[in-house]
């Protein structure tokens, strides 16, 4: 293909960007975002590299910055939505900002006629998300000091007006602690909050509605504080998609799912992390359930060809691709099927808009590899689609669904539609050709890697990572489609390919198993490792009690494997009790045979306690078994034993916490409150650790 001026420019910038990357900021500041090397995303420019938010806002003419602290992408998504809405409804000049990309010691000079938003997820035990750690440490410090006005004493942030929203989960003890603490710290620094600090609750499943309910009064308060005038919301794209009919999808410059430039050029190398996966061979895969109606996969992922390392208790992230059937549906309902392999260049329309994937690329690639097209619907997104409906009748219906919470629930949410299924159902045979593709890039989440608790021990197999994953398949009454989990069905397809299964999926899912340009062929999957604090005691003689029903057993297989190895090595290994629960001993008793081997290796130091909920007359769960073993459990805790819980965050983990407090109270003859505070204390001193999801 002939290169036009634009292409040459792209090449030059790619080259400069790569240089920046490889010189690791020696000659200029390097951005963490690997896509920042592409001109298409527009961040390479005069406003591109600064860690100075004030400068950046000035250069790009912004008066509203929306910082986010995001782990799984939801907070980032809410930040983008606020940015869009602020701009389209109120004419604010908005930008979103990853907290990790900026310094904060100049917030004391934040202009009074501008506003900063903080959209903060609370992670784990009340912790900041990875990208917010530095900000949180800075702002929470007793002797925080800003560049001009000092710190707490001087009310250094007196000129800053801010808006806050938190994303949390009420099943955790430190519910929404990030946003609650932020407002506390901002208060003492004299900053002025606009509206109430919002709190979304993932535990109650009301995150979206909490957000929608919070933002209206917030916008009203902000309008009056900044004298904003509301106008009819018009769609203003943040990105521009340019079709390149003269380029071919086979062109070496075109990204067909390669996550970054190194992968595109075929010489991917570490460090492997959340921006750069390792394409790992799957060494082995097998089915763990005997029950023919459900699947649970055991996989061994070979990382020997990489510099990836893990320690027992870490997580591995799997990067999924969407099922072909859903990719086809999505492209079809938008009328893009014929153009699916058209090369497109995507760029941000201003310097602060990051394109969430590398470009140039194709429609098919964006939908297959980069957008979370299978997730449930957001009411706000649905309402933004009304203006692009195929006709007035559909427009009226979409407007109603978008504006009425109950109607939305009845006609959209309860049907478990993904976006394309929803458009199909609403379109009555009509295609939705008027929706700009950019709207999807802006409104759908970027596809997220899913985490799995590593189910092997690094002492036993340091270059082979095991996972234990139950395949998600959700059939709901009144829902026309079965919801098939994105990643786990992809893994299932990989397993089936590995075993040459001729009839892969009854629901007709199919996957681009070979990956971009067939680079994943031979059964590979993109991964990276995330280190966790979920760890065995360093002294193996300390007792451990593990509670892990279902796939919650995953990390404990690793723990037990490790202690069995230590016992074989002649080390003094303490008592190791595992509470495992499932439906019955026949169908879903994970690793039933392996436990026998570990018991042989460890002798009476290992004890497996099972709870089969559907085997006897009454439902028995791990909590019940824990209670039955109260005396021993308490004794081991008194010997400074470690207590671990893994699996379902919503119910099991909370109940286990309660049962443990009961056990301590009864066994030690102390009041319940005292026992509860002992459990809390155990958590603080890492004697009680959770790995829940
Ligand atoms: P997704 O596509 O993400 O769907 C998940 C669920 O979302 C569905 O089942 C459904 O309930 C809902 N959903 C999705 N789409 C819709 C829709 N259109 N409408 C309504 N509802 C919808 N899992 C394991 O099996 N083993 C582990 O060891 C393990 N360890 C983990 C460790 C950590 C730290 C974390 C955070 C999670 C862990 N998980 C583990 C969970 C895992 O990360 C995935 O969430 C899980 O496998 C589902 O992924 P998926 O892509 O297949 O499903």
UniProtKB/TrEMBL annotation:
List cellular component terms (GO).
cytosol; endoplasmic reticulum membrane; mitochondrial outer membrane; plasma membrane
State its location(s).
Answer: Endoplasmic reticulum membrane; Mitochondrion outer membrane; Cell membrane
Q: Which UniProt keywords are given for this protein, alphabetically ordered?
A: Cell membrane, Endoplasmic reticulum, FAD, Flavoprotein, FMN, Lipid biosynthesis, Lipid metabolism, Membrane, Mitochondrion, Mitochondrion outer membrane, NADP, Oxidoreductase, Steroid biosynthesis, Steroid metabolism, Sterol biosynthesis, Sterol metabolism, Transmembrane, Transmembrane helix
Signal peptide region:
none
An MF annotation (GO) of this entry: FMN binding
> Domain Flavodoxin-like, which positions?
64-219
Which top EC class is given?
oxidoreductase
- Tell me which residues bind FAD: 450-453, 468-470, 485-488, 693
Q: Which cofactor does it need?
A: FMN; FAD
User: Which annotated residues bind FMN?
Assistant: 70-75, 121-124, 167-176, 202
Q: Where does NADP(+) bind?
A: 294, 551, 613-614, 619-623, 655
Task: Describe the function of this protein.
Answer: This enzyme is required for electron transfer from NADP to cytochrome P450 in microsomes. It can also provide electron transfer to heme oxygenase and cytochrome B5. Involved in ergosterol biosynthesis.
In Swiss-Prot or TrEMBL terms, this protein is called NADPH--cytochrome P450 reductase
> Organism source for this protein?
Baudoinia panamericana (strain UAMH 10762)
């Amino acid at each position: 293909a002939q290169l036009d001026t634009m292409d040459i420019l792209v090449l030059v910038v790619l080259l400069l960007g790569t240089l920046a990357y490889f010189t690791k900021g020696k000659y200029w500041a390097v951005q963490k975002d690997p896509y920042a090397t592409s001109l298409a995303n527009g961040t390479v420019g005069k406003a591109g590299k600064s860690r100075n938010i004030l400068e950046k806002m000035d250069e790009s003419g912004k008066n509203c910055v929306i910082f986010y602290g995001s782990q799984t992408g939801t907070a980032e998504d809410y930040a983008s939505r606020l940015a869009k809405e602020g701009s389209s409804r109120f004419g604010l000049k908005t930008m979103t900002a990853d907290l990790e990309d900026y310094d904060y010691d100049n917030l004391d000079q934040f202009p009074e006629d501008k506003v900063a938003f903080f959209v903060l997820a609370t992670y784990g035990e009340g912790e900041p998300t990875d990208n917010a750690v530095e900000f949180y440490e800075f702002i929470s410090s007793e002797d925080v000091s800003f560049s001009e006005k000092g710190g707490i004493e001087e009310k250094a942030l007196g000129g800053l007006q801010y808006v806050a929203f938190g994303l949390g989960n009420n099943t955790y003890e430190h519910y929404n602690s990030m946003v609650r603490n932020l407002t506390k710290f901002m208060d003492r620094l004299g900053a002025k909050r606009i509206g109430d600090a919002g709190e979304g609750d993932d535990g109650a499943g009301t995150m979206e509605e909490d957000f929608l309910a919070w933002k209206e009064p917030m916008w009203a308060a902000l309008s009056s504080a900044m004298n904003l005038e509301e106008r009819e919301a018009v769609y203003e794209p943040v990105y521009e998609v340019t079709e390149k009919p003269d380029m071919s999808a086979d062109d070496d410059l075109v990204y067909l799912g390669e996550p970054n430039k190194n992968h595109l050029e075929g010489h991917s190398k570490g460090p492997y992390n959340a921006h750069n996966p390792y394409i790992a061979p799957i060494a082995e895969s097998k089915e763990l359930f005997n029950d023919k109606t459900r699947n649970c996969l055991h996989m061994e992922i070979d990382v020997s060809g990489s510099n990836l390392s893990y320690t027992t208790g870490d997580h591995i992230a799997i990067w999924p691709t969407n099922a072909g059937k859903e990719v086809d549906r999505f492209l079809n309902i938008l009328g893009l099927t014929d153009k699916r392999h058209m090369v497109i260049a995507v760029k941000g329309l201003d310097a602060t808009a990051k394109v969430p994937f590398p470009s140039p690329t194709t429609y098919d690639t964006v939908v297959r590899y980069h957008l979370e097209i299978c997730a449930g619907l957001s009411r706000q997104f649905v309402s933004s689609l009304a203006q692009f409906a195929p006709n007035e009748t559909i427009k009226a219906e979409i407007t109603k669904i978008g504006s009425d919470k109950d109607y939305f629930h009845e006609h959209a949410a309860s049907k478990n539609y993904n976006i394309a299924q929803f458009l199909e159902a609403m379109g009555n045979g009509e295609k939705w050709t008027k929706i700009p593709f950019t709207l999807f890039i802006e409104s759908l989440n970027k596809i997220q890697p899913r985490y799995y608790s590593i189910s092997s021990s690094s002492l036993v197999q340091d270059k082979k990572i095991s996972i234990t994953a139950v395949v998600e398949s959700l059939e709901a009454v009144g829902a026309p489609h079965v919801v098939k989990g994105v990643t786990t069905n992809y893994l299932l397809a990989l397993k089936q390919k590995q075993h040459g299964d001729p009839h892969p999926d009854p629901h007709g899912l199919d996957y681009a198993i070979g990956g971009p340009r067939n680079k994943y062929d031979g059964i590979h999957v993109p991964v990276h490792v995330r280190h966790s604090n979920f760890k065995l005691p360093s002294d193996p003689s300390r007792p451990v009690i593990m509670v892990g029903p279902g796939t919650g057993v995953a990390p404990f297989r690793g723990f037990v494997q490790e202690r069995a190895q230590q016992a074989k090595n002649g080390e003094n290994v303490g008592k190791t009790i595992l509470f495992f629960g499932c439906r019955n001993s026949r169908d879903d008793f994970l690793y039933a045979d392996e436990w026998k081997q570990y018991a042989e290796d460890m002798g009476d130091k290992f004890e497996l306690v099972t709870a089969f909920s559907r085997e006897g007359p009454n439902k028995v769960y791990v909590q019940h078994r824990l209670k039955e073993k109260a005396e021993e459990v308490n004794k081991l805790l008194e010997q400074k034993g470690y207590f671990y819980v893994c699996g379902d965050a919503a119910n099991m983990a909370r109940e286990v916490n309660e049962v443990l407090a009961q056990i301590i109270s009864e066994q030690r003859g102390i009041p319940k409150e005292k026992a509860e505070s002992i459990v809390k204390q155990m958590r603080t001193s890492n004697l009680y650790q959770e790995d829940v999801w």
